[in-house]
Amino acid sequence: MPNQESRDNPAFRMSRRKMMKGAAAVLGALALPEREAPASVWESFFQKHFREMSKPELEKVLARLEKEYSEKYRKAVKVRATPPVEGVLYGYGLDLSRCIGCRRCVYACVQENNPSRDPQIHYIRVLQLNKERGVDLEDAEHYYNPSKVPEKGHFYMPVQCHQCENPPCTKVCPVQATWKERDGIVVVDYNWCIGCRYCMAACPYGARHFNWKKPGLPAAEMNPETHYLGNRPRPVGVVEKCTYCIQRVRNTPGRYTACVEICPVGARKFGNLLDPESEIRYIIENKRVFILKEDLNTRPKFYYFYAT
Amino acid sequence: MNREHSRHRLVPGIAVLAACLVAGVASSAPLQEKGKAAKPYVAHAQEKQFAVPTPPFTPGIFPCSECHKEMKSNPTRRELKEEHTNIVLNHAQGQRWCLDCHDISNRDKLRLVSGEKIGFDESFRLCGQCHGDKFRDWKVGVHGKRTGMWNGEKQYLLCVHCHNPHDPGFKPLAPMPPPTRPENVK
Amino acid sequence: MPMKMIWGFFKGTLTLVAKGSRAYYAWVSCLLVLIGIGVLAYIYQMENGLIVTAMRDQVSWGFYISNFTFLVGVAAAAVLLVIPAYVYHWKPIKEIAVLGEMLAVSAMVMCLLFVTVDIGRPDRFWHLIPKVGLLNFPQSMLAWDVVVLNIYLVLNLTISVFILYNLYHKREPNKAFTTPLLLFSIPAAVSIHTVTAFLYNGLAARPFWNASILAPRFLASAFCSGPAFMIILFQVIRKYTRIEIRNEAIFKVAELIAYSMFINLFLLGAEVFKEYYSGTVHLAPLQYLLQGLKGHSDLVPYIWTAMIFNVSAFFLFLVPQTRENYVTLNIGCVLVFIGVYIEKGMGLVIPGQVPDTLGEIYEYAPTGIELLVTLGIWATGLLVYTLLLRVAVPILTGEFFVGEDGRTAVIVDTEFIRRADHLAEQSYRD
Questions:
Q1: pTM score of the predicted model
Q2: Which of A143, C79, C351, C367 could share a disulfide with C289, CB 3.0–4.6 Å?
Q3: CATH number of the domain at A84-308, please?
């Protein structure tokens, strides 16, 4: 990790700026991600890494993004950068004895998190598994579509980002564009990601998704309550993922995630792992719990359990 | 099996009731979001208070006393022929009937085994008499569902928001569309 | 004074690359056309996003990264092969060591281009520059790869330019300078390939890649493909230029391929045994590769082609009679090159992602755009190598050197690629 002090030194920043201007001019023409106002293109090109920005710098960036998004989606878009709530480590429980595979969560998530509709990006993948085979991913059916669920002889296992305590995806990022926050949420700086997709290769849960094309997000469907590290609109060519609805949960009080809220069978549970009174702690202490691919030592904070 | 099985038993009326229940569940999220659509009932249970949304009554059916106060109570176990014919008990039907749960003297109340009368917004206590394990999980937010703030105000969905008390088996749902296959992502 | 000498050398090289026979012009124009097509295809990809490739979330690395992986091997082997001979004065190879280094340079250029066309935001390349951006070193193996590949590129460029510049001035390159660099390039060559193997190797999510045998396998197969390419190249060079390359050198290289291929096949066999005999869930990718999985078998014909090619080439190079017969030797080289290209390219990259981490099978096959961009990059690599040779060959044959004044370059060779009969007066074969 680079030395924080030296990087914040104004002289250093100057030299970086100068150095990059020349290079940018050469690449500029090819690099323009969208036909935006030139000033904002340069600003976004030179934008620092999220964690390296000072408070005023961050505020400037947030204001620029709000302006950009508000114009593009023709509504007042808020981009916040709410920091983690102290003393909180988010944990998620999913009751496999309840889930019926109705996919309500998949689409509630889409509505909340502003992913591309076309091409389609879903953060949640619901697997239909065979009761006789158990959790055998090779045997998983991803595209089941009967008239009614649950189907006989099957159970359902939704998979999304497990917000690992030991995330293999952040380790491999060559530019530190993705990291685990203090509250355990693994986030991506969409303005820093270079789109190499190494994190996608490293993720054992298929939780990371790439913007293969300029995201198609109809203005009418755009959720204007956004977080810089969460559901703000993404540019083409970067990776994104579930953030436990960071824009909702990082508040006091904070709303439940969209998937928890929608689940018609109450299979989805969410809470603070550090709070002994939380529902997630009750589950871990009282229910039969397992984590997916335990042998990989990723230590997910996403717990599958059987309430009955 | 489930689907065919239930189709045999489903009386159309129950289906309507079930639909109402499902609608109740589905609307619970927006209810909570707007925060004003429904006035939360605050029920007083033994240990603590549980904020719950309005019980999912069939429209126009409550208060029951509107009709019942004019009628004479008949405590004889029988098949109902004139009213409530849409209710087919599929819930330990050999062991109980209406007045085991609905209070004979005050139809706007439910009745616990102890004889205590409780409101419909406290129905979880009635269910909890038999389903102690579920009740325990429900109270901590593990069985069933709570909505609202993960670290603040929450509402508990009542048992009956998801389970028709007369036919509590969870009804299958139509799934939302499957994801696009990678070869069709264009 | 040295600046003027360097400027004279530089001017001379520019004049030199602009001069050549009709065949030279034809070859270069042909490459330029292919590069042009590649550039157009890349512009199309930039405009539309990587959606124009066949890569998707399920298989997020495809043909570009396959080519990258293969070419890292070529780059590594080209140097590993010639450096020891250079350092230990094994004459037959020593003279042509510089050709190997230049091949490494060209392969490196291609590698870097393949990575560039694969990333979603090439405009943010500066995030990778240490201190300016935020290179995640030493955590990320990709950061390691960026570092070692660039060091390796600079190293080989330095060595070959230094040697050539000295030969151009008709003096022996200073050993105090070259020997340490040459010695350093050996671990550097091993490291680029090891690091590239570790890039895959370190991913526990992908059992097909998460095998310790991967790095040794990478090196063994690199020792097949790199030298095979060089054997053919040596023959082309000595046929169309005045460079002398002795049969002895070529046959020695061929023998080395036989040993490497044996090790490569042995390691592969060890891997196949382990997976099939233990029969865990980790078998699925290998099954997909070798026999197809649940009716998906796009890669199967390719991998068996590769197997057959590799095994046949092994025998061709093992038996002295076929090794020292130019027909069978060249057949063997082509077989090895194609075999390793399949095995180390798509045969390595794709099964790592099929089935994906949630068991889904997506059969990846590159799109036309991917093929065109790839073709463009290969043409770029060949053009770089051609231009490097255009300078190096006349220097090695004494047809490009500094004039009496110590500044102006003298160019004798104005053709470069010559018709065979023009070379007839010179009998260069043993």
A1: 0.88
A2: C351
A3: 3.30.70.20
